[in-house]
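Q: Structure tokens for this one, please.
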Amino acid sequence: MSLVFVPVTPQLLADWAGGAAMRPGLPGIAATDELCEAFGVTDAEEAERVALLVASVAGLTAHGVRLVAVVSATAEPRAGGDPDFGEVSLPATSYHSVSAIFADEPRAAVAAAAAVAGLPLAEAWEHPAVTALLSDVDLLWHGAGEWEALTAG
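A: Here is the predicted structure, written as tokens:
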């Protein structure tokens, strides 16, 4: 088992926390050997930080928000995913495997989300709006039990 960083929407997070089992194949990002090599990291903690940031950008491109659930799971390489970005697929999993949630302050990533909506992850990662967001705005840590505050509104 390892940590998998799963970009989610507020609705998906609410459904999951409310008891819905996540379907198998949910996309996530893990600190894989390929990600570590691509980003030149050797420290496990730094690799997880990079995986979190990559997942946050994946969330921007797919959902328009940086909302990332941290899950303990055994993931598989994602078919068609970019191994350099640690793209994996989760097995079916319950919310009990979520240990933390990371999110932006409200409206912190609106401009970056608009700039990269629908772009491939590798292209979004290099976008100037994302580069600025990653250097200027930290994701905030929340416990798994704080999901309601992150899904309201």
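A few notes: Strands lie at 2-7, 27-30, 67-73, 76-77, 87-89, 98-103, 140-143. The radius of gyration is 14 Å.
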